[in-house]
Amino acid sequence: MAKEKIPAYIEPEDLSRARNAVIWLQAIGDDSDAPISLSSFCAEAVMKAVKEAETKYMRGRPFPARGRRQLPTGPRPGASDRPPGIEDDCSA
User: Fold this and answer.
1) What is the pLDDT of residues 80-92, one digit of tens each?
2) Which of 25, 27, 35, 89 could, after both became Cys, cross-link 41 (CB 3.0–4.6 A)?
């Protein structure tokens, strides 16, 4: 089966933690448990989250197909790059 690349962003610290986990799991785990790559580790984590969401919201069944609707990209509407407590002050 052909695989597709997913467009996802992750904090640099989280990416470093994931890479460290893969390296250490390969070093200490038995061959059947260790991820073969960061890619496979991430794919397994994503599918685990999908299955948990299906169990929680769909009684274990897959979510219905989305049709031609595309997922939104970029920041969430109303999201801000500013840290909490920093207001947009144009009067300065």
Assistant:
1) 555 555 454 454 4
2) 35
pTM equals: 0.70
Tokens of 91: 């009067």
Q: How far apart are CA 15 and CA 38, in angstroms?
A: 10
Backbone angles phi, psi at 65, to 5 degrees: -60, 145
Tokens of 66: 């989305």
Rounded-to-10 torsion of CA 49, 17, 20, 35: 10
Mapping DSSP onto H, E and C, the string for the chain reads CCCCCCCCCCCHHHHHHHHHHHHHHHHHCCCCCCCCCHHHHHHHHHHHHHHHHHHHHHCCCCCCCCCCCCCCCCCCCCCCCCCCCCCCCCCC
- Give the integer Cα–Cα distance in Å for 70 and 53: 19
Examine the pLDDT at 74 and tell me if it is beyond 60.
yes
